[in-house]
């Protein structure tokens, strides 16, 4: 078994694929594409957790993936499932308690709840990106603690590209306001 930075090749590959997906979310121009890339990112992050035997993380990512798939069809889902956000909050709390390992277990509970609320109640891409920066800071600490170094690099990179995307949007908005 080939090891890179103390990780299996499979773990490295899954983290690199997550990096690609996370990069795309920072610059995507519509929410549906962000939700698709988010779903793929979480799938590859779940594979990483599975390879590292972090089953609580895997459960959390499984719930996030299911939520992300439903978010792709948000407009039709919202009409049918009025208690969608409450359901996913409860699922994260319940599975978070069941799979609790240590204080770091709070991150896979809290961050998807916050993201789910942002995704469910807003279509503002800038709010999503701000949320992404905050959540990636929390996940960065989690990834360093769990020795997921490439995911930690992915999180750092995601923070940087989301900040760049936020700044670009702000500059473009200011430029349009000056012209208008």
The mean pLDDT is 84
Q: Helical amount among residues, as a percent range?
A: over 70%
Bin the strand percentage. Answer: under 5%
Task: Please write the string of helix (H) and strand (E) elements.
Answer: EEHHHHHHHH
Please tell me how large the radius of gyration is. 17 Å
Q: What is the number of strand segments?
A: 2
Helix count?
Answer: 8
Structural class by sheet pairing and helices: mainly alpha
Low-confidence stretches: none
Order of strands, main sheet, comes to 1-2
Shape: globular
Characterize the main sheet.
Answer: 2 strands, antiparallel
> How far apart, in Å, are the first and last alpha carbons?
61 Å
Report on the structure:
This protein is mainly alpha-helical and 180 residues long. 82% of the residues lie in helices and 2% in strands. The protein has eight helices and two strands, in the order E-E-H-H-H-H-H-H-H-H. It has helices spanning 9-27, 31-51, 55-72, 74-80, 84-98, 107-121, 125-145, 149-179; strands at residues 3-4, 7-8. A hairpin with a 2-residue loop joins strand 1 and strand 2. Helix 2 (31-51) runs antiparallel to helix 3 (55-72), helix 5 runs antiparallel to helix 6 and helix 7 (125-145) runs antiparallel to helix 8 (149-179). The longest helix is centred in the C-terminal third of the chain and has 31 residues, at 149-179. It is globular, with a radius of gyration of 17 Å. The chain starts with a strand and ends with a helix. The model has no long low-confidence stretch (mean pLDDT 84).
């Amino acid at each position: 078994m080939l090891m890179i930075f103390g990780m299996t090749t499979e773990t490295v590959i899954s983290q690199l694929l997550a990096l690609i997906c996370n990069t795309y979310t920072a610059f995507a121009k519509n929410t549906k594409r962000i939700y698709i890339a988010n779903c793929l990112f979480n799938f590859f992050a779940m594979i990483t957790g599975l390879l590292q035997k972090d089953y609580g993380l895997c459960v959390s990512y499984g719930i996030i993936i299911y939520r992300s798939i439903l978010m792709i069809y948000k407009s039709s889902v919202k009409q049918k499932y009025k208690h969608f956000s409450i359901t996913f909050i409860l699922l994260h709390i319940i599975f978070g308690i069941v799979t609790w390992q240590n204080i770091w277990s709070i991150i896979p509970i809290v961050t998807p709840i916050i993201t789910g609320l942002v995704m469910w109640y807003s279509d503002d891409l800038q709010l999503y990106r701000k949320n992404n920066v905050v959540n990636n800071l929390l996940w960065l600490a989690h990834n360093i603690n769990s020795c997921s170094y490439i995911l930690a690099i992915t999180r750092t990179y995601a923070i940087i590209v989301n900040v760049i995307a936020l700044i670009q949007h702000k500059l473009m908005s200011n430029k349009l306001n000056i012209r208008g």
